[in-house]
Design goal:
It is found in: Cytoplasm. The chain has 313 residues and is an alpha/beta fold. It contains 14 helices and eight strands.
């Protein structure tokens, strides 16, 4: 199997470093002028068998391509290049819901590349940990009973362990929705509301994730696995999470570098719109969306959540 990764951000680069343990890897980025060290992963030297390039054509010879592109960038990229990817095995690593179509990455890929086998790689992971070779476990979702196990073995390494599922919807939604809750957790801590409040947000946020994912066809056990509860735990408790840091800034009333990709900000808006469309109650996601837009103050958001009607858990 020949492997290429499209997207030379921190996560795409980290995956290239990890997978280079199994053989040569192509790594493409629009501005990949660097060769041996990605500025987004300082201190990590690229192994010699990683071909870093800004020439897309040169990496499209691979039969398996990982799409390590931000969720809100993916639709436009596929519109431009989907025909060239069609028929290849495509693995999405994006964690988000497209704000325009209210669909996940796998649906966007399926529409643009109908002849491709599609998989989703997701779960609790930080780029720096993967690049440094620290033990990491992820979920690989693939509906194909033949291609799934093949990918599982090809993309696993001695320190990167993949667990296989056929539940693409559950894996994808777990990865997208947890970013929204991570922003909420960061808001709580940034506003000085304490760890007890964060625990409540994580717990009730997980309940929202599970309800929405279930309505959209996900299996409950997938949400309790690595791609749901596992990823939620990581991103709600670590300052390495951009979504959590974004929430910290919102809660503290401080500016945040918008040049940094915060998948959960756009996803919150998409989730709020999607929940309204299907009639699902998502109060935390809706409040995060309004806070990210600057449409409500933190104080008012907390008041609104705490004065909702009392109910059974």
């Amino acid at each position: 199997m020949t492997i290429a990764i499209l997207g030379a951000g921190a996560f795409g680069t980290a995956l290239a470093v990890a997978l280079s343990a199994n053989g040569p890897v192509g790594l493409w980025g629009r501005q990949a002028s660097w060769r041996r060290e990605n500025p987004r992963l300082p201190g990590i030297t690229m192994p010699d068998n990683i071909d870093v390039t800004d020439n897309l054509t040169s990496v499209l010879t691979a039969d398996t391509i990982l799409l390590a592109l931000p969720a809100q960038i993916l639709r436009g990229f596929l519109a431009d290049h989907g025909a060239r990817l069609n028929g290849k095995t495509l693995v999405s690593t994006a964690k988000g819901i497209d704000i325009s179509t209210l669909t996940g990455p796998s649906a966007l890929i399926a529409e643009a590349c109908p002849e491709s086998c599609i998989a989703v790689l997701t779960g609790p992971s930080f780029a720096a940990d993967i690049a440094r070779g620290l033990p990491t476990a992820l979920t690989l979702a693939c509906a194909s009973g033949i291609e799934g196990p093949r990918l599982q073995h090809a993309l696993s390494t001695p320190v990167l362990r993949l667990y296989l599922t056929s539940d693409i919807a559950g894996a994808e939604l777990g990865g997208a929705l947890k970013n929204v809750i991570a922003i909420a957790a960061g808001i709580v801590i940034g506003a000085g509301l304490g760890d007890s409040a964060r625990a409540a947000i994580i717990t009730r946020g997980f309940a929202e994730m599970t309800r929405l994912a279930g309505r959209l066809g996900a299996r409950p056990e997938t949400l309790t696995g690595l791609s749901g509860l596992g990823d939620l735990t990581l991103t709600c408790t670590s300052p390495q999470s951009r979504n959590f840091r974004f929430g910290l800034s919102l809660g503290a009333g401080q500016p945040f570098d918008r040049a940094t990709t915060v998948e959960g900000a756009a996803t919150a808006g998409a989730v709020a719109a999607l929940a309204t469309r299907i009639g699902e109650d998502m109060p935390i996601a809706a409040m995060v969306a309004r806070l990210a837009e600057g449409a409500v103050s933190v104080e008012k958001a907390v008041e609104n959540l705490m004065t909702r009607p009392l109910k059974e858990e």
